[in-house]
Write a structure and sequence with these properties.
The chain has 97 residues and is mainly alpha-helical. The protein folds into two domains: 1-56; 59-97. It has four helices and no strands. The longest helix is centred in the C-terminal third of the chain and has 37 residues, at 58-94. The chain crosses the membrane at residues 48-66, 73-91. Keywords: Membrane, Transmembrane, Transmembrane helix.
Length: 97
């Protein structure tokens, strides 16, 4: 486990956080895009890599995780409220209720 942790540090430092991150935001060709997607999926499903990235970046890693989680919750709250507003509008226009 310790070996995986030390292997994960440079890997995650180069590729960025395991969920929705990465230093390379623009993939110039298909090979790079596939490589980036594969590295993210490997990091996403490997908790050792995830904790290795967070502990390597210390407090900032956990602050990033908190901000990512809170923004995801805000996004889903906005999405649900928008869908409910659209439903109310459709019901009011159709006159069913």
């Amino acid at each position: 486990m310790a070996v995986s942790f030390f292997i994960a540090i440079p890997f995650l430092h180069f590729h960025g956080p395991p969920i929705g991150g990465g230093r390379c935001h623009v993939a110039h060709d298909g090979r790079q895009a596939r490589k980036l997607a594969r590295s993210r999926s490997v990091a996403l499903f490997n908790p050792i890599l995830f904790l290795g990235w967070a502990s390597y970046h210390g407090v900032f890693g956990f602050v990033y995780l908190y901000k990512m989680f809170s923004s995801t919750c805000m996004y889903f709250t906005y999405l649900i409220s928008s869908l409910l507003a659209i439903r109310r509008m459709v019901v009011s226009f159709s006159g069913v209720g």
